[in-house]
User: What shape does this take?
Amino acid sequence: MLLLLMPHSAHAISELSPDDELVRAARAGDRVAYGELYRRYAPMVHGVLLARIAPDYVDDLLQEVFLKAMTQMTQLREDDHFGGWIAAIARNRATDQYRRTREMQSTDDFATSIATRGTPGSHAEARIALATIQSLPDAYRETLALRLVEGMTGPEIANRTGLTPESVRVNLHRGMKLLRERLGIGKRDVNHD
Amino acid sequence: MTEPTEDYLWDKSGTPDSEIERLESLLTQFRSESQQPVWIHSPLLYRVERSSAKRFWLSAALALAALALVTVTLAIRARFEWRPGDPWKVVALNGSPRIAGSFVKNRADFSVGQALVTDAASRARIRVASLGVVDVEPGSRVRLVATHATRHQIALDYGTISARMWAPPFSLAVDTPSASLFDLGCAFTLHVESGGYGTVYVTSGWVEFETSSRSIIIPAGAEAVTRPELGPGTPYFSDATPAFKIAVSTFDSHPKDDSVRAMALESVLANARSHDALTLLSLLNRVPLPKRAVVLDRLVAFVPIPDGYSREAVLNLHTDAMDAYWAALHLGSPKNWLMNWKDVLIY
Assistant: This one.
């Protein structure tokens, strides 16, 4: 009986469907379409969250963000702005989480604690690198998390977040320069501003 | 050795930067696993999604309703509340009516204690606070007796007025030489002769005629006469037969002449139509107990005694039984004055 309530347009949705078509279908209740949106945008949302909160919370919040977005699809006014819209939801949710739990240490403290604990191995190094990324200004840490953690290219970041390619390029290079300085790796003088 | 290029940071093209590659490698462990969660296809969440959308629209509708309610409340307050003692506005419709002896050329204030007089060629319109209008016909004299926040009082010494009120019951009282009229949310025409006789014709809603000893209520379509020293008579519908009207008038005019009253009552009953149940029900209050049975018999022929009430209860004028009988006439209720909103459209 419940299946009868489900929309019937699932067969029309594919990996090639444009975002706005997926959004319209998802708003009408098409779960296959929403699943495709999830597949496309989950890495971006994951990166946005990871740029702000401890990794332990990210997976749960990722689900929350997509669930909230699904229940609020009627509030998305422009069908081709899904990326920017859900990124905003993710940023707000990450901020709420931080305020609510206060469990995330300040990023400097986090990096310091990892380093002073002297935990051997790549995991500790990775935590330090991530904490250092989180310590960067908003525009840089988000773009770098998407590039270095999620493995997205600059054009992909621009496409998913709704930022202009120019902004992403500038954020990447300035952020990388700052990250190198804070991690003490390389002193290469790059200037693409 | 080839120098790394910035293209690698941008789109992973060109010569890789070893430091960036190392960071990528280290941070891969935090990368998302973009498998779809099972809840996306849960039919249970379909309801959540729908109800959320519904909630949004419900919230929007509630917000609009609240806004409308506040607006209506403010509008009603603005309409129904008056600053006590403030003068009313008068407009000359024809000729040159006078207020306190001065001619009204176009517009004028009408204050408590003043009299508005129209001659044979003049008419005037009085705005009753913010509740309605009273048109003063030629050859009339109207005094403004009092104006309070929600209650207002005028006196019609002689002449004719036509009033349209859209206001809670008893907002306007009109004193006449032989009775006071109270609007119950209505439109009516009141005529007072120089000898003190008054007649009211109700065109919308209800009107009450009252003296210290008795009161009657008159619905739309009906009329009633008030007489000096006798007060309000029995209401009857304007479309009643002349014989019926004469019989009612005779009955009301001879309260102390039993034989005349008996003949008049006989004529009333004989000429009554079903529509005249209003008059018959009113007469129950005016005839002595021995005569009530005859009147009730005639009334029952048109409108049965309401279920749950006995004949004795009606004959003894028990309040609840009489209220039920009035309701059974389906004439509407004075409490429903809000439904007479059309009366306000004349402004």
